[in-house]
Amino acid sequence: MARAIPLTRLFLACARLRPDARPLVVALLVVALPVVALPAGLLDVALPDGMCRGHASRAGAKMLRSLPLLLRKQERRSRSQVEGRDTPAPATPSRSLALNGERPGPAFAGERRQFTDERHQARGEVAISTHALWRLRLVERLPRWLLYAVALAGLLASARFAIAPPRPAERVVKPAAPADLPAQSFASLFARAYLTWEADDLEARQQALAPFTGSALDPEAGMQPPSQGSEHVLWEQLVQQRQLAPRERMYTIAVDTDAQGLVYLTVPVARQRGGALALAGYPALVGAPESTEASGAGWGGAEVEDRSLSIVIQRALRNYLAPAPADLAADLAPGANVSTPHLGLSLESIQGLTWAAGGRSVVAIVTASSRDGARWTLAYEVEVVRISHRWEVAAIQTDPAE
C-alpha cells in the first residue's frame, strides 16, 4: 500500500513562498502527483518497460518527500537575492594569483585590506569608538540640570514678586507754581494808579502811588506826566506771569486807557519774608504776547457722516440756544450736566460737523440770530456717546461742575 503524503503541508508551504518561487513548485507537483496516483489506478498511463506501478509510486513518493526541502532552499535563495547577498563577489587580486600558483606580495596586501573594508561597509557593520566617561555623563545629565535651573529661577522670581512686587515708575512732574492772587491784584492796582493822571492835579497821582513806592523809589515811580492833558484807565487784565526768583515774579498787565489805547506794562512784585508785598523795581512798557492768525485747528477733523448723529446734534443745539432745558433733556445721556445760556438765540443753520481729536466729541459750527437782529457764528464742542444704538449728548462746550 502506497504511503500517504501530507499534501496539506505542501499547499501551505506553497502559500508562504514568494510569488517568484511558486511556478517551480507548481511544476514539481504536476510531475509528482501523476506518479503517486498510478498505483491507485487514477491515471491510465503506459509505463516504460521494466518499470512497474510500485516502482513509480515509490519514486513519486520520494520526490514528494524531498519537495519541502526544495521549497525551503528556493525561499532562502529568493531572500538572499533581494538583500543582495547572493551577488558573486569579484575576484580579488590575491585570489587570482593563488589560482595561478603565485604568492601575493606586499603590494597586494593593501588592495586586499581595502577590498575587505569595502565588504564590511557593504554589510553595514557597526563602528566602535571610544569617548570619555565624563563627557557621556555630561551629555546625559545636562538637560536635566538645565531644567532644574529654569525651575529654580522661576521659583526665585515668584518669591521676589511676592515679597517685593514691582511698582510702575513714577514720573516726577514739577508742579506749576500756584497762583498768587494777592500779588496779581497788587500788580493790577499799581498799573491802574501808574497810568492814571491829570496835569492839573499831580498830587493826587503821587498819593495813589505812595503805598507802592515807599522810600526805595521816587514818588512818581519813574514817570512824570506832561504839563497838560489827562489819562484814565478803562480796564486792566493780567495776561502773563514769570517766576524770577523763589519770592519774586514778573506780571504783564494789559491796560486800556482813553488816551493811549491798549498798553502792556510789566510789574515786578516781591514777597518779603514777613509776607508783605512790594515792588521789586521800576515797571516797563512791553509789547503784546505773541499771537498769530486763527488756525481753525479745533474743527479740522473728519466730517461726521452719520445722519442720525447729525440730527441729534442739531436738535440738541437748537434747544440749548433757545434755551429749552426740558426739550434738551430728551437728548442728554444719563448723568450729563449742561447749563444753558441766558441769552436766547435762534439756530439758523449748521455750517459744519467734524470729529474732534480723540473721536469722543463733535465740533459744530453754527449760525444763530438774536431777537434784536444780531447774527452770530459760534463753535460748540459736543461730547456724544452711543447707548443702545442711539446717540446721546454727554456735554456741550463746558462742564458746569468744574
Describe this structure in words.
- The chain is an alpha+beta fold and 402 residues long.
- It folds into three domains: 7-83, no CATH class; 181-286, Nuclear Transport Factor 2, Chain: A (Roll); 298-396, Nuclear Transport Factor 2, Chain: A, CATH 3.10.450.
- Helices cover 39% and strands 21% of the residues.
- The protein contains eleven helices and eleven strands.
- Strands 3, 4, 5, 6 and 7 form a five-stranded antiparallel β-sheet that branches.
- It is elongated.
- The N and C termini lie far apart (128 Å).
- The model is unreliable at 1-5, 35-53 and 91-101 (pLDDT under 50).
Question: How do the strands and helices of this protein lay out in sequence?
Answer:
Layout: H1 7-16, H2 22-37, H3 53-65, H4 67-83, H5 93-99, H6 107-123, H7 133-163, H8 181-194, E1 197-198, H9 202-213, E2 230-231, E3 233-245, E4 248-257, E5 261-271, E6 277-279, E7 284-286, H10 307-321, H11 325-328, E8 346-355, E9 361-369, E10 375-387, E11 390-396
Antiparallel strand pairs: 1-2, 3-4, 4-5, 5-6, 5-7, 8-9, 9-10, 10-11
Total domains: 3
Q: What separation lies between the terminal Cα atoms?
A: 128 Å
The radius of gyration over CA amounts to: 59 Å
**In sequence order, what are the helices and strands, one letter per element?**
HHHHHHHHEHEEEEEEHHEEEE
- CATH domain fold name of the largest domain: Nuclear Transport Factor 2, Chain: A
Biggest sheet overview = 5 strands, antiparallel
Low-confidence stretches: 1-5, 35-53, 91-101
What oligomeric state do the depicted chains represent? single chain
Give me the count of strands: 11
**Helical proportion?**
25-40%
Q: So what's the overall shape? A: elongated
Mind telling me the CATH class of the largest domain?
Alpha Beta
